Amino acid sequence: MNSQPAEVRKNELESFSVESWEEDLIRRYPENTTANLEEDEESFRNYKDEIRPEVKEFYRLNHRYQTLDFATQKKESFLKFNRRKMSVWEAIEFLNELVDDSDPDIELPQIEHILQTAEAIRKDGHPRWFILTGLIHDLGKILCLFGEEQWAVVGDTFPLGCEFSEKIVFHEFFADNPDFNHPEYSTELGIYEEGCGLDKVTMSWGHDEYLYHVVKDYLPEPALYMIRYHSFYPGHKEGQYTQLMNQHDIEMFSWVRAFNPYDLYTKSEERVDVKALKPFYNDLIDEFLPGKLSW
Ligand SMILES: [Fe+2]
């Protein structure tokens, strides 16, 4: 399936990188504040007015093209894992190519941001599986290197096959999504049963869902929830879609929330000594995810 829509406004997307969406998240959910931007209407309006054009264009495409059909087809294609065999460290090095291309003078290599997240978790004394989760949680972004468009790799995720929550940023862009007026997909429960559990729910396609399926047989359940739902801001930050969750999801989401600050607020311009840290992280990888994985 061709994921390059004809009407992409190319110029506007030119300066978008996978990090642009995360920078935008930090503006939407500033550190050290419990205030919800969206509840303060004026702040939220200001936030939206200040969003850079490439980020807005990114949300427009994401909301226009993430349909139940699209996510189902992408799962069929990518969950065959027939593209590459790589160890976790090789996948980290592969992902590093993504950012090296864009702006090597300003941005730290992706590998250093990955290690900053993991090191922050380690310094706070969390268990080894939690540190590993910090290390690997964004490896699904290698989808970009498999030729996927950025709007199909990053961005807030949300359930498909039921109505789009109004709390999803730029909800208005869903008006152009074919599922928006679909008789079955546009109700509160859509194709699902109340409390069915998120495992039965098809989420919008991206790096979270992809990596979850790569590692799902190897890591403890809280780690899998962190990986699978870390971009599900409408769920873990805005409290939406509880009608689809079961009691177990609700309990596990405390882990997703515990992970979120490490995801959003640990990246800095401070250099990381990759060589010095590599032995510790290779041991950690060998403990849970040894050898080559199928991607
Ligand atoms: Fe991510």
**Class computed from helices, strands and strand pairing:** mainly alpha
- Ligand inventory: fe (ii) ion
What is the string of helix and strand elements? HHHHHEHHHHHHHHE
Total number of helical segments?
Answer: 13
Mean pLDDT level: 92
- What global shape is seen? globular
Taking all Cα atoms into account, the compactness measure Rg is 18 Å
Say how many strands there are. 2
Tell me what the structure shows:
- This protein starts with 9 loop residues before the first helix and ends with a strand.
- It is built from 13 helices and two strands.
- It has helices at residues 10-13, 18-28, 41-50, 53-65, 68-78, 88-102, 110-123, 128-136, 207-215, 221-229, 233-236, 247-265, 274-288, and strands at 85-86, 293-294.
- Strands 1-2 form a two-stranded antiparallel sheet.
- The radius of gyration is 18 Å and the shape is globular.
- The structure holds fe (ii) ion (FE2).
- Fe (ii) ion binds at residues 137-138, 207, 230-231.
Quick structural summary:
With 295 residues, this protein is mostly helical. The chain has helices at 10-13, 18-28, 41-50, 53-65, 68-78, 88-102, 110-123, 128-136, 207-215, 221-229, 233-236, 247-265, 274-288, and strands spanning 85-86, 293-294.
